[in-house]
Specification:
By secondary structure, the protein is mainly alpha-helical. It has a domain of 63 residues. The protein is built from 7 helices and 4 strands. A two-stranded antiparallel ribbon has the order 1-2. The protein has a two-stranded antiparallel sheet with strand order 3-4. A hairpin with a 6-residue loop joins strand 1 and strand 2. The N and C termini lie far apart (100 Å).
Length: 175
Amino acid sequence: MVTFIKCRKCNKKKLPNDFYLSHLKKHDFLCKKCSNIKSSKYAKLHPEKRYAYWRKQKAKHPRYCKVCGTEIKMDFTAFCSYKCKEIQIKINRKKYNDMVFPSFEKFKVGIGCAICGYSKCGGCLDFHHVNPEDKKRRITAKMWYSGSNIIIDEMQKCILLCKNCHYEIEKCLND
């Protein structure tokens, strides 16, 4: 028994092979003749119509700059100018810093100074390398937030000290 499918545009009953498979999967019963799918041959024969659909969509839905709201004339960009892109980069950087630094401060306050036990302000606590020759890099909030193994290894070589204790140790080492 042969099954027929009715095209929703021309209302003719046709065989399943007269429909595109992708249309059948979506239950969008348009036959190949009624379908708006254009082959590469069509695009080569009619280059003026090739991007007509996208030009119509751009005309219906213009794009606007994320920062200043002016209409964007160029394709494939979210900003109208380099200046607006720089402003957005600064905004994103501030959001990231506002997220990273407080968590790093809380982490340091949770540990406290190894000598005197100070743990009121995370900004007053520093990582001190016990053996200065083993120091490969500084421990910063951004690097700590990344959670890379390099920083974890570097933190294992250090002790956390308050500014006063750190200064006293550094002064004793240099004298």
